[in-house]
Specification:
It is a single chain. The chain is α/β, with parallel strands linked by helices and 393 residues long. The protein folds into two domains: 131 residues, P-loop containing nucleotide triphosphate hydrolases (Rossmann fold, 3-Layer(aba) Sandwich); 248 residues, Arc Repressor Mutant, subunit A. Helices cover 44% and strands 16% of the residues. Keywords: ATP-binding, Nucleotide-binding. GO terms for molecular function: ATP binding.
Length: 393
Amino acid sequence: MFLERDIYPSLVQHLPKRQITVLTGMRRTGKTSLVKQLLAQSNIQQKHYFDLERIDIRAIFSEPNYETIIHALTQQGTDFSKKVLIAIDEIQLVPNLPSVLKYLYDTYDIKFIVTGSSAYYMKNQFSESLAGRKKIFEIFPLHFGELLKFNGVSAIPLNFSQSANYISSEYERLKMYYDDYINFGGFPEVVLADSAADKRDLISDILSSYINFDLNLLSDIRDPTNLYKLIKLLSVRIGTKLDVSKITSVIGIPRATVENYLELLEKSYLIKTIPVLSTSPDREIVKAKKVYFLDNGVASLSGELGSGSKFENAVFNQLMHKGEVAYYQLKTGREIDFVVDKNYCFAVKETATETDLKNVQSLAKNLEIATCYVIGRHPVKKFEGFIWGGFIR
């Protein structure tokens, strides 16, 4: 069954181009499925798919003489005098693969589609050697609109103005799915799982694989327990300013280690930090970033996350697909939860009121932004400027 992701048309558009098509994102976000869909879509006759988690496949691409790779594939019937399409999954598993790709790309008429589980790897080891030869596409867990599609539910994308048009029947139709999104996130296999217990088991397995396999591969982590403690600590600090000194004292590891872990967690797509907007530094918070998780299921796994924080994290993941997200805060503590593209301001409240809207409108004047909304989970009271969270898709 072909369930199309929103990014798929962009991938198809890039498919005929000479550049290497690179898909990067956290493990099990659906990169392999997208690659196999692209293979089926391509009109190139000679196609190969290689999974580097197989040791025999790693052996092929680990050959020190790169022509040996060509000889091996030629013996399997590939004619390199004609166009060839090669897809390679999890390229970070072969350290010298960027060099291999560069040589084969420059020497033969090969279209490559490759995947990797880390921006950390892609940007530090992969990008320099393939400058100008690749385009990177980031693959995230499903956003809410995609979750609906995967559940066979019809729902067209809406802009913010359309989202603010509250329709009771649509709320009733989509409420159950939105609750699932808030509680279990958007990993494709989690979305398609039948029961809550199955969803929780899958999320636990995803996080364990991420810590024990991906992060150990990308960095020399001596004690994964400390990393798990940090992830758990971050999950209960969703939507709050990142205080590295406090985190350091709670976990009991050096500040430099915490900072390195935070960078690794962000570049391997577990968390995302957002900046603060500033116009008058003497009145505003100007440095501290806020932290969010890129999947609600992983964020909720500790069981200690409150419903308000879950909802705010879900809204962040919805808004990040709409534009660049930041926040705004005065030193008095008054704040705007999210500012998108410096054009839209949002307050996030489980039960929203008109007073919440007036507060965000008042602060938005400092940023010279006129368009403001309050995003709520429970539509107890509807008013102009109110958006039910499930209408952001």
